[in-house]
Amino acid sequence: MIQHRQFLLPVFCVMLLGACGNDDRERLPGRFDRHATAVELVLTEDGQPDPSVLATEQILHRDNGEEPATLDPHIAEGAPSAHILRDLFEGLTAESPQGRIIPGAAIRWNISRDGKTYTFYLRKDARWSNGDPVTAEDFVYGLRRSASPATASNRAQVLLPIANAAEVLSGVMPTDQLGVKAINEHILEISLKGPTPYFLNLLNDSSTYPVHRASVLEHGSSFSRPGNLVSNGAYVLEDWKLRSRIELVKNANYWDADHVYIEQVFYFPFEDQSAASKQFRAGELHWTDGVPANQFKWLQKHYPDELVISPWSGSYFFGYNLLREPFIENPDLRLALALALDRDLLTEKVTQFGEQPSYGLVPPGIGEFVSPLPEWAEWSQAERNEEARRLYAGAGYTEDDPLRFEIRYDAGLNNKKMALAAASLWKQVLGAQATLLNEEPKVFLQSREQKVLTQVFRAGWISDFADPFSFLELFRTGHGRNDFGYSNELYDSLLDDIASERVPARRRRLMFEAERMLLAEMPYIPVYTYVTKRLVSPRLRGWDSNIMDHHYSKNMFLLKTAEEGQQSTTVEAEDKAEPNTEVQVEEIPLEQSVAEELPEEKPTTEPGDDLAIEAGVDNETGTSADEAGAEPPASQLDMPEQVDIPEQAPDVPGQDTMVPLEVIEDDDTPELVEDPPE
Amino acid sequence: MTHDSGMLKHILRRLLGLLPTLLMLITVTFFMMRMAPGGPFDTEKLLPPEIQANMEAKYHLDESLLQQYFRYMGQIAVLDFGPSFQYKDWTVNELIAQSYPVSLTIGVLAMLLAFFMGTMLGITAALKQNTRLDYSLMGIAMLGISVPNFVIAPVLILLVAVYAGLLPTGGWDWSLASMVLPVVTLSLPVTAYIARLTRGSMIEVLHSNFIRTARAKGLPESVVIRRHALKPAMLPVISFMGPAIAGLISGSVVIERIFSIPGMGSYFVAGALNRDYTLVMGVVIFYGVLIIVLNFIVDLLYAWLDPKVRYDEKH
User: Fold this and answer.
1) What is the CATH number of the domain that holds A654?
2) pLDDT band at B281 (very low <50, low <70, confident <90, very high)
3) Chain B interface includes A21 (CB < 8 A)
4) Which pLDDT tens digit goes with each residue over B17-65?
5) What b-and-e string marks burial along A524-550, b requiring 16 or more CB atoms within 10 Å of the CB?
């Protein structure tokens, strides 16, 4: 027996070594939310949640999808980094829970008459997490760093509308030639290459965030590590356990810290969506990043209140390679294939998560833009099939000599099912013979790009910023992702017009025209628009669905559980009449929510609004001054060291450019209230 | 003394023999990785050329392949695996240093569990050969071998974590509670395999002449089994355990995904799919060294257990 113990000794040593490798073994927070039910939401007069309904422990657990690649805002790409960076940093503009552009680090801004110069007035009460003031210089430094070739940012294309950005990026010009200038400590001027009506939408992208110069210089590339990272958003980075969790805590120096309820946010990476959904079911998560495929019906039945599905700014479609037979110069054949796809069937049976069939490129719900519909969108599927067969025969294909082509797609269960379903529909309706080819994602992207092997390929686009231009641009001659080989001079010049047109209505008309041009030529086959799908604890409120799927933790708060609520009954009668209880309504028909939001919209929030209104931005902030009295400027209360700055007071009205958003909610909610007050 | 120095020489010679193997491994992996279509910065959102150029310059991808190869060899000579292309805030050394202790802990615990449970069950079955107990134990073992991890794990999570609420569904915080399910899941097939191996070789040993002699000398059965039968019966188990340990402690992709464990296994897959050249190279080299060393240790153990292989031809 003794010999056997000796034999095991090395094994034990190895184990001990392993166990000693990590000293910081903290406990994962236990199950806190198991089968939780929330108390009724009660709001105070200024639209904030009443303290009596707030849970004592405001710790949020979010599933963040994959592990973020980096927390350096200028190198970061992809949703997982972006979610966390939105909590850590604050760009010039921010977004309301509904996704509308609102003031961020800048209180207000002026756009010059030619649309090429933006002047931003920064909040004077903004502080970095170490207490330093946030100045225009910080933004200048941040934007220059982001554009510098040395940073090697792969998101820097966001900066390309800025004057000289392309030259700086390619190293032809030094970074100080970038069209960004600090007029004084609190005024920032950005010059653009040409008018870019969606420029404000770009400014909440992490590549435009400011960074704290002193700490970047001190720590170099590891400035974004916990302990080093100084941020200007509502949260600071507390800890990062690689592929385990990222912990943020509230930034006490944030200018609006009084209205930040969640004290601590844990972001968990999940490689497996069903692992996340099991953790949610066990009460270990408040928020998941997705739901497992094929569980829609089950979740709908068992978690009807938790399952949230809402439209997303993305389109799924098939692309044609227009440089290869049989689809060159053959719009009728291209249309025939598009007609023969039964989109209702595909979304119901294949994708299964309430995706909307689409007949165009731009998904609905982006601003006021409404896509043109082809006439066949109104037809029944039988009519479409008939027309498809007619066009197919017209292109010279018969039963004995059918159309043969290949559908290429990248690995992924959903893509495979979709390709299979499409191929069988084309066979069933037209008799066309499609072969399927599955490629590893990176290989697939390369095949698409080369435009040599592909015929019909899986495609899709999720826009980075809320503007239809992001989609339309894909078909520009020479665009990097124009894998269709589509080239149309008329279309390109139309895009140029769209890029410089500043009157929104006219610009929308141009975009409408561009999309109609695509519909006439059918270089792609529209299939459906994406949806976001997730499980959310009913206790978590303060957020709303938006098509960009951007959700700031600072807007959220946790309600008491129903059991906790019973112990402390509160007077609710009056507040119940307050219609704001709709914060979590998901099933607002899109048109309705858009229609109701827009009329209220302030000129400061819409990029290309009328020139006339925009010139009056300053007056605008002045008129809302009366509302400023309703809410004491939080910043002054927790910032006593600021008194030496005399211009503090004029800021207050500006700060209230945010107030109208709450007002809007008050105004348009009566129709939207889901649970009527008892 | 001579015994010791012979052993030492044996060890040194074996270690030197590992170097060319390692060099081959590195070279082949390096060039195979580069031959795969697509690069680390190819994404659905294509980069403008000036940005692509900046990225490539930063990671030296603009140099010739041979230059890159020698640069890389120079780096790993000083044990620097370089920055990860995918996890841009971290170096590959840091990624391995953070994830490996996790994989190692789970792997070693699973191995210990599998070894003890497996040998116990195997010996029990062998001693009760052809009884109902034997059949049922081996039946369960067969089930353990044939039912894959990705079936057992979700079932365990559902029963133990979601419905009963006894343990966390996943995640990792170095607490015993977060280790139980992954360790048990990981050890099950190995336990089953070891049980079958032990049973087979034990039965064989029990029928050999020296055992008959021991019994004839009137030794009590327990002594016969512990002192005489067990050691030779363990030989096939030990040779199985070499590669099995390597497999277990290098991290299981399946277990890591299902239990959301930050181990090393996922880096193989993520690294390859993302064309994260440095990460793939790092884990391949690390894993290569690990396997070589473990096989080496198994050889030594073998020599200790079985004098027949202890000395080389010279002795």
Assistant:
1) 3.10.105.10
2) very high
3) yes
4) 878 888 999 999 999 988 888 888 877 776 778 888 888 888 888 889 9
5) bbbbbbbbbbbbbbbbbbbbbbbbbbb
**Nearest Cβ partner of B55 from A28, A154, A440?**
A154
Give how far Cα A202 sits from Cα of A186, A234, A378, A622, Å. Answer: 20, 20, 36, 26
Question: How many whole angstroms separate alpha carbon A405 and alpha carbon A247?
Answer: 50
Q: Which residues of B touch A278 (CB under 8 A)?
A: 154, 157-158, 161-162, 169-170
- For residue A27, give the nearest of B48, B104, B175 by CB distance: B175
Residues in a beta bridge with A356: A529
CATH number for position A109:
3.90.76.10
Strands laid side by side in the A433-439 sheet? A356-357, A524-535, A307-320, A456-462, A404-410, A433-439
| Cβ of residue B267 closer than 8 Å to a chain A Cβ | no
Residue that finishes a domain, picked among A209, A238, A260: A209
What is the rounded CA–CA span in Å between residue B253 and residue B273? 14
Task: List, in sequence order, every beta strand (DSSP E) within A301-350.
Answer: 307-320
Out of A213-217, A289-293, A418-422, pick the least confident: A289-293
Same-domain pairing of A101 and A199: yes
Q: In whole angstroms, how far apart are CA B121 and each of A535, A619, B133, B134, B187?
A: 44, 84, 10, 9, 14
Q: Which residues, 6+ apart, have CB-to-CB distance to A266 below 8 Å?
A: A29, A59, A60, A61, A62, A245, A246, A247, A248
Parallel, antiparallel or unpaired: strands A404-410 and A433-439: parallel
Q: How confident is the model at residue A569 (pLDDT cuts 50, 70, 90)?
A: low
The H or E element that residue A606 is part of is none
Model confidence at B265, pLDDT cuts 50, 70, 90, reads confident
| A272 and A391 housed in the same domain | no
In angstroms, rounded to a whole number, what is the distance separating the alpha carbons of residues A425 and B288? 49
Nearest CA in chain A to B171: A244
Record: contact A18-B99, CB cut-off 8 A: no
Judge if A365 and A412 occupy the same domain: yes
Asked if A19 reaches chain B (Cβ–Cβ under 8 Å), the answer is yes
* Same domain, yes or no: A240 and A297: yes
Q: Where in the sequence is the domain holding A155, given as residue range(s)?
A: 90-209
Is residue A641 predicted with pLDDT exceeding 50? no
Which pLDDT value is given to residue A484?
Answer: 94
A10: chain B residues, CB-CB within 8 Å: 297
Separation in Å, CA A668 to CA A215, A313, A592, A659, A665: 45, 23, 10, 15, 6
Residue A643 in any domain: the answer is yes
Of A209, A232, A262, the residue that ends a domain is A209
The Cα–Cα gap between A135 and A643 comes to 17
CB contact under 8 A, B171 and A28: yes
Q: How many domains does chain A have?
A: 3
Start-end of H helices in chain B: 2-35, 49-58, 65-77, 92-127, 132-146, 149-156, 176-206, 209-216, 221-223, 230-249, 253-259, 265-273, 277-305
Query: Helix, strand, coil proportions of chain A in percent (round to 5)?
Result: 40, 15, 45
Which 452-511 residues of chain A touch chain B by CB within 8 A?
460, 464, 480-481
Q: Which of A2, A7, A28 to mutate to test the interface with B (most CBs of B within 10 A)?
A: A28
Q: pTM score, two decimals? A: 0.81
In a domain, A49, yes or no: yes
Whether A84 and A64 have beta carbons less than 8 Å apart is answered as: yes
Q: Do B169 and A225 touch (CB under 8 A)?
A: no
Cβ pair A31:B165 closer than 8 A: yes
- A484 and A357, same structural domain? yes
Q: What is the pLDDT of residue A357?
A: 94
Q: Which residue in A72, A170, A274 is closest to B89 by CB distance?
A: A72
ipTM of the assembly?
Answer: 0.84
